[in-house]
Amino acid sequence: MTQTLPKSFGRKVTNWCPPTEDSYTQENSTTEQTSTANSSVCFSCNCSDTGYFGDICQFNVDDCVGDPCVNGGTCLDKVKGYICNCLPAYRGPNCETDIPDCDPSPCLYGSVCKERSKQEYYGQGDDEFVNFTFAGAAGYVCECALGVKGVNCSEDIDECEDPTNTPCQNGATCVNSFQNYTCACVPGYTGRHCEEEINECETLQPCKNGG
Hints:
The protein is mainly β. About 0% of the residues lie in helices and about 30% in strands. It has four domains: about 1-60, no CATH class; about 60-100, Laminin (Ribbon), CATH 2.10.25; about 100-155, Ribbon (Laminin), CATH 2.10.25.10; about 160-210, Ribbon (Laminin). One of its GO terms (biological process) is heterophilic cell-cell adhesion via plasma membrane cell adhesion molecules. One of its GO terms (molecular function) is calcium ion binding.
């Protein structure tokens, strides 16, 4: 049994003959065929699972169609596959995994670690989290606990550094300690900041004999 092949081509399995004005006749088969026209050879190209398509599998299938790379990753097409070039904050075959910059936390002394990749932190009035971008999503910000400062909250804040502006009142002396301070009160005052005046008549009762 024979069939006449027009000059038309498919994407997967293609019956192909050199283009001329004539059609070519080949016998039905899944193997290479020999036509009876002009002694030409006709054959079938099965492009399945090759990464290519076309009459003779000459075109590479673009595996980046559909944008498989997420979180701002860029797709590089390869034969039978693709590679995602991920931005610094992400990893994984499709850049689908957020790198955990806060696990373990680099922020010290009970400070809070916030990852720049977490979109819920943005738009809340924090100057460190204004506009989210995938390119700027790498890294973290430490929300330091009281008494410490610095990128990782490793530096002590000296509350007594400026003697004209200390938390201690009524002539008390400010004594700094790590992540804290104390106030050495002058006689007659008490309290965390020496803010309370002592009523000696009430507490000490210096007067004798009902005085």
